[in-house]
Structures are given as C-alpha cells and as structure tokens.
Amino acid sequence: MGVTTALEALSSCSGCEIAILNLGEALIPLLTEQIDIVHAPILMDHKYYGQCGDGGKSLQIPEAVIGIVSGGVSNEEHIEVLQEMRKKCKVLIALGSCATQGGIPALMNGQDSEQSFDAIFQTLSTDPGAGRPDRIVPKLLDRIYGLDEKVVIDLQLPGCPPNPAHIAEVIMSVLEDREPVLPTKSVCDTCPTRRQGKGVVDTVKRFVENADFDPNKPISDMRCLLEQGFMCMGPVTLAGCAKRGVPACIEARVPCRGCFGSVRPKGNQLLDMMNALASNGIDCMSVVDRRSIQRFCGAHGNLRPKKKSAVKEV
Amino acid sequence: MSYEPKIIAFCCNWCSYAAADLAGSSRLQYPPNIRIIRVMCSGMVHPEFILEALNKGADGVMIMGCHLGECHYLDGNHITMARLDMIVELLEDFGFESERLSVTWLSSTEPDKFVKAVTEMTERVKKLGPVQGEVQTA
User: Chain A: residue nearest B100 by CA?
Assistant: First the structure.
C-alpha cells in the first residue's frame, strides 16, 4: 500500500496528467510501490457522488495524503472541488502553469468578459442566438484565478506541460519529507546558445521569419535568439523545461514562450521583459503583441481589461 | 467632493526630496495627499514599484528627480526617462490610466515647482477617481 494520492483537474486541458504519464518507466515503481491513486477523474473512473449516485448530495473526494490539482479556477464548481481537495488532502500541489498562474485560460482576464460572452454566444449576422447559459452549467467567476488565490497551496509546480522529472521529484520530496529540489534560475541560465554581446539590435522582430542557424550543427552553435532580435522570454522565465539539456522551445529553434512563469517569485514577466528591453536601449514599442507576453500568467491580476486614457469628469 | 486620493511620490535624495524639505520649512501650502518615499535616485525606481503602489491602492504615483543633466549620479534620470515611455504604455495594459503616473524634474531650490507639481497631480488624480486595484484573496 502506497501513500494515498488524489488528482483533480479544474480549468485545464489534461496535458498535466499526460505529463505525469510521461514519466515513462519511472512511473511503474512509483505507482506500484510508492503511491496509491484514490481519485483521478481524468485518469480513472471515480465519481463525486458515489459510483451509482448513492453518495449523498454533497461532493465527496476520498481522504488522501497527496493532492495534485491541475488547472486554474474559473467557475463555481472549480471552487467547490478545490476546497474539497484542500479539506481532504494533507499536501496540496498545484500542477502546471494554469494552476500556478492561470495559464492559457487566463488570457480571458485580459478582456472584458461581457464582450467576450457576447462574441461567443451571439453573432451580428444571424438570429439573436442563445442567451448566456445561467442554469445547469456552473456559473463563471469574474475572472480566472490561480489556485493560491483561493486556497493555501503547499507546493507550486509550473510548466506547460510540467517537466515529468519535476513531478517525480515533488512527489518523492513529499514521501521523503524534505524540500523539493526545483530550478530557481532563468531559462537563459540553462540555454546553451552562443552569446556574443548585445550588438546592434534596437528593435524586436516578430517570429514570422526563421531564426538564423545551421540545422546540421548543434544548438550551441546557434546565436542567442534574443541577440538575433527575436522576442525570447528566456531572461524572465523560470527554467525547468529542459528535458534533454536544452530548453524545449530553444531545442526546436524557436524563442522561449515563457510557459514556466516568472523566474522571480510573484514577478511580472511583461514588466520585467519590457524593463530589460528599455534599459538595454531596445525600442519597447516595437513589441507588437506585448500583452501576449502574459500568455501563461494572466491570473493574480497580471492581465486585466485594457484601460484607455482618462475617464471624463462627471 | 470628499474623495481624497493617496499619491505616492518617489523623490530623489539630492534634488526633489530637498525641494520638498525646503517647501516645508518655507511654510508653503500643498495638498496633504502625497506620501513621499525618499529614494537615492529617480533612476532606481523600478517599474515594479509603480505597479505595486497602484496595485496596493495608491491612486497615483509621482516620480521626482533632478533636472536632466544635473543628476547626482550623472545619468540616473536619463534612465528614468528611458523607462518612462514604456511604463506609461504598460500601465494601460495593467488596467490603469496612464495619467496616474507623473514625472517632474526639479532642483533643490524649487519648492514652488514642487508645490505646483503636487497640486496639479492631486487635481488630476481627483478627476480620475479611486484606483481599481487588485483585490487579494486567500
């Protein structure tokens, strides 16, 4: 019998669960000897109200030592599930960027939710269309939240998807009752590309043209993408995506997208990146879609509906 | 109008803080809405300070430094200026009106200019109304 573990997915895509499965061979001893999964709606059949609906009126999640939650909080059902998880689990782990800082769903925080819903449920060219659903489906919250905005989270494990090695490390650290050893430095710190100095770059290019590299040569022969003038989020992003020694996006010879969130705890990637560009004499206004820098960390108030200039005097 | 805004002013040690000091000892009257934070140079005011102030409920932020070319550290206020365009743009991204930030250059012998800047900023923020800051939960 292993340590009881409950998994739960809120506003997420199940990619984090796939990342757990991506542990590969290492998953087998973990599952057979170390942990005992008692609840995981995405990976196995286990229902909230008893298997035949005989479990009463309130949501039931079995007691567990380790609780792993992926996905952010976007509706009232999510809050209910999350609070039940917090109640039943001794150690609650936020798995993936959605859980730790909102992730992709939190992109919606950047626009007015009324307008978004009108755009989704109604079109100008056809009949009035369906109204916004207000029954049966859970009510949406005013914005998408990271888990730590709603309950106390014991361990944060960002990434889109998280690195399977880190998932194992976090689980083992709980089993062995020690602090997990996770990366704390930036993506640049783990990046092998060649840095030659800041050079003559004064604007930022969009990644519509390919980077300059020789496909037959290793990554370490490619020049730093930021130095090539591309918007690479490496300097402000937490390391951890390097599964084969090279950050995942850099390995594919594309700039870092910033999926692990800010390298500084509670940092702000957009602000840090723009500040870095400004203090290096690069024209910040040449970043066309700068709000999308927050594409993985829209919770915690990092993305809000845009406010334009002054409000008129009443 | 009963609404009294809170304005955080980052004053550099060498010019604008001295100007504020002189304004006080000269008994000049100015709105009590500002809270002065002394920094060594306006160039050390990281954009995060500004955002943090607004997020935590300040209604406006003023940055005050020496006149350009008169920085105690030679080019500190040029750094402030380089960041400024960026911050003004970004404030809108974070859901704040760009008018909530102002920058003033003044020397230590210009308390009247300090008073004028503070008065103007207070008026401006009063028109904008209270800030819609981040509400922290859990």
Answer: A310
